[in-house]
Amino acid sequence: MLSPTGGGPQTPTRVLVVDDEPQIVRALVINLKARKYEVDSAHDGATALHVAAARHPDVVVLDLGLPDMDGVEVIRGLRGWTRVPILVLSARHSSDEKVEALDAGADDYVTKPFGMDELLARLRAAVRRAEPTGGGEDDVIVETEDFTVDLAAKKVNRDGRDVRLTPTEWHLLEVLVRNTGRLVGQKQLLQEVWGPSYGTETNYLRVYMAQLRRKLESDPSHPKHFITEPGMGYRFER
């Protein structure tokens, strides 16, 4: 899978657009095809799941307000068998609904009304993050200008010295680094690091994120790598 914006021989990226508003589907199809994407569309959740299984899209653009089921159910249905990037497109503005979609497995969230340029940029980013890394070794070492994370050795190095992290700090760092550039919801982080019975103890995240920033950021009060999305979750940027 290669983005149609790249150079050299290309396999067109296939997009599945799921929305019950014909004018939005039409606008997306026109804009995506103009940029050499291959596009399938569905107007409800059941059709979306069927088309996804049959056509194996490289990325899904999904409205949450579908006539037959909630878009979150579609996300869960897809996540039962595929890690395809899912970009949610919705008129719902509350952070709770955004968090629910992200916790179900969505990769990003664009609120209607949206700018086509922004949507296409988010879509390209989602596709890039999902591209295979070759032998799988490329992401074992993750480098930033401030520190280096060795996921295989479970070590962090800053200024030529190993940084001592607690097991919990390491686990939190690992989850974020393995999702570089992607917003990870609070509930997902809590459950992956502390266990399935945790989901609302957001104070844990604040405390441990502050510790990671203090140990790894050059300016912890203005973090460049451990970014907070208020009310939603956290994002790691290189």
From TrEMBL:
Transmembrane segments: none annotated. CDD domains: REC_OmpR_KdpE-like, trans_reg_C. Residues 139-238 form the OmpR/PhoB-type domain. Gene3D superfamilies: 3.40.50.2300, 6.10.250.690, Winged helix-like DNA-binding domain superfamily/Winged helix DNA-binding domain. The modification 4-aspartylphosphate is found at residue 63. Coiled coil: none annotated. Residues 139-238 bind DNA. One of its GO terms (biological process) is positive regulation of DNA-templated transcription. The keyword DNA-binding applies. It comes from the Bacteria. One of its GO terms (molecular function) is cis-regulatory region sequence-specific DNA binding. GO terms for cellular component: cytosol; protein-DNA complex. Residues 14-127 form the Response regulatory domain. It is found in: Cytoplasm. Keywords: Cytoplasm, DNA-binding, Phosphoprotein, Transcription, Transcription regulation, Two-component regulatory system. Member of the two-component regulatory system KdpD/KdpE involved in the regulation of the kdp operon. Upon phosphorylation by KdpD, functions as a transcription regulator by direct binding to promoter regions of target genes to positively regulate their expression. This is Transcriptional regulatory protein KdpE.
